[in-house]
Every structure is written in structure tokens, then in C-alpha cells.
Amino acid sequence: AQKVTQAQTEISVVEKEDVTLDCVYETRDTTYYLFWYKQPPSGELVFLIRRNSFDEQNEISGRYSWNFQKSTSSFNFTITASQVVDSAVYFCALDTGRRALTFGSGTRLQVQP
Amino acid sequence: GAGVSQSPSNKVTEKGKDVELRCDPISGHTALYWYRQSLGQGLEFLIYFQGNSAPDKSGLPSDRFSAERTGGSVSTLTIQRTQQEDSAVYLCASSPGTSGGSFYNEQFFGPGTRLTVL
Fold this sequence. Notes:
The structure holds 2 protein chains of 2 kinds. Helix content of chain A is 0%, strand content 52%. In chain A, strands 2, 5, 6, 10, 11 and 12 form a 6-stranded mixed beta sheet that branches. Chain A has a 4-stranded antiparallel beta sheet with strand order 3-9-8-7, with no helix packed on it. By secondary structure, chain A is an all-beta fold. In chain B, a hairpin with a 5-residue loop joins strand 6 and strand 7.
């Protein structure tokens, strides 16, 4: 069975602080994809990143970076120099090719000005 | 181009009534998904359509829930005899479907329909 755990229910930071959102996954499949989605107050899920299980290179995109470690089954997401516009619920998801994404319960990030 | 659209954006209904939720996927996308997001929860898979294949209904919570996809495009999710526990945001997503035999495609989500059952 697949499972995604986002242990942090809610995080509050002050603008310009760095923040890391944790994601731990479980699967017996050796081939899979991991995703991060952002859900702003408007409600629409916005795709952020997709990584496959064979690529453990960390990725950086502007203020966003992702740390994928198969040894600990983790795919953590860091926002550097957070901004108020980063306030949203962030979901980590797992795709093992069984057609549907398995989502974590989400982490609500509040960035205070 | 246009993204995934859903209608209505909000629906309030009385317990016991039937409701229909509509999803218009991105043109050309062969895969379509329905998810449910209850308050403060993650997304729960409901049903998946891929081209002309039989849908994967493994996530539907009860036989009160059904969905169809006409002409490989628009999809309707129907909930019969609604219950208060059906209150949630219903999200639709589409993706290009299989690519070189891979299911691992990015899913594009619609804005959702917020269903409230009184």
C-alpha cells in the first residue's frame, strides 16, 4: 500500500525566514514519482515539481528547493526567504503508476509580514 | 490555453437530494480524475477515466456515487441521496494520459466544487 505522511499540520513563519516542509512516503514499488502541489486560498492546486525515483539529485527553482532521499523515503521542500504570497497549503503526493495520486494530508504554511 | 473547469463552484443541497457535478478537462487530455477533499484533509481519490477504457472506480465510497465521461471529454460526478458526510470540495484533474506507456503524468486540477449538504 502507498502512504504519504506530512507530519507538520501547520507552520507559521515571519517573512524572509526559510522554512522546510517535510514529506515521508511509503511504497514497495521501485519505480514511482513524487510531486509537490500548492493550494492557495483560491483552492486550485498548482503543480510545483515532479521527481522520479531514480533521480535523487536535489533541485532548485528560484526560492524553492527539494531534497529527495530514498534512504529515508523523504522528499522535503524548502522555501528560502519566504514571502506572504507563499502562504498556502502544500501537498506532497506519490504516484506509483496505479493511476491515482496518493496525497499527504497537507501542511498549511502561514507567512506573516 | 484553457485549464480544467468545474461547475458549479458552490452547491448547497438538502440531505437526500441528488447532485451532479461537472468537469471539463483540458482539451486533448485523455485521463480524467475525481478527488474529494474534506475540510482540513488531503485529497481522496474517487474515480479515474483513461480514454475508452473501463473507469477505475475503486475509490468511490459508496454506491450512491457514480460518474460518467461522455465522448472522452466532459465528466459528470453524481451523488444520489446526499448525506451530510458528503460535504466536501470535489476536485477534478486531467492529464495527457499515458505517454510512452507511462502513467506518470502531471495532473492539472480544476478549481473544485464546494458541496454543502444541509
